[in-house]
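Researcher: Please predict.
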Amino acid sequence: MKLPEIEKLIIKYVTNSITAAELDELSIWIKEPENEQVFCKYVKVNYAIDYHMSQFDTNKTKKLLLKKIKEDSNVLYRIRIQSVFKYAAIFIGIIGITFFFQNGDDTIQKLKISDEAITIKLDNGNIEVIKTTGEKRILDKKGRIVGVQSGSELNYKNNSQTPSPSLFNNKKGKLAYNELTVPYGKKFQIVLSDGTEVFLNAGTSFKYPVKFINGKKRQVYLLSGEAYFDVTKDTNHPFIVNTNEMCIRVLGTEFNVSSYPEDPTISTVLVEGSVSLFGKNEVYNDDETSLLESGHMANWNKSNKEISINLVDTSLYTSWKNGKLIFKNLQFKNIVKKLERHYNVSIINNNKKLGEQYYNATFNIETIEQVLKSFNKSFEIMYTIENNKIIIN
């Protein structure tokens, strides 16, 4: 990538106008040691600006910028001082967090993160443990194989091709359901009997039929948590995701649903296609449901039952299935909750001012210790660790 393009990305980064795709480009460029040093120095000067802005002195701040840019003029000489300086005020409370980390002496007390198991509740009520390092066969009441688990995927498609009486739990033809629970700190994937792929995020409980019935709607239940659906198209059998408050109806598309009990809203982000949203206790009607188009997010307010729809960068809400955490202009108090789920830790923030601040950050393979070190070095956040509990003061 040419230097002028990199300069634009760096400025976009420090002014909080960078997209998730551009963050990925910048991240790749930073992997080169010499590039990482340049970026690190440039971001540090902006952190220094943030510090000085608390007792803002225009001349002092401008001198700081001039001095630092001069030091790096061999690489960043094309960046105009006037352009950089006019963004200085933006750095108050809206500072980007660097998304690379230096190895060094680890002075942070190690977290004791519990390794909770992924479990599956079978139709007969039995609960079994799933180990992502191994393989497992899911059996029906008569001992027949209905699903096969290998690593972090459980596949029902190739194991229940034809209807079997054992797939029903009574003579009336009621479907047999399995329920998968994924604890904090882990993710999992299911391939349903129709080929639909479902990615389950940390802290998710998902109930689904072992096999869909011909002539019936394909209904699944996101009891809590977050899931990404890549639905196999079938115009004769609508696919419906039921949550505790609302339902999402599709024929075949890709979308993300987040329905954590502690969140005030249930969000649906549509990647492609279209979906219809309606209340849990409502009867589906084409004329009365809310239609969501690709590239938009719908938020269902649990309190007033109202839906708001906005155009969004969908990658910000779906990157988790690829192991990424992307925060853009997000308050620290909301970042905390996502970190808790992703790493299976408890974070208590006693710094109210910090909780209201907005940040940008992208994390990929970093440990929670590295994430904490990043926050600590950049903003001098004081915290202690007790077992798996992080206390910020």
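Model: The first helix runs from residue 3 to 14.
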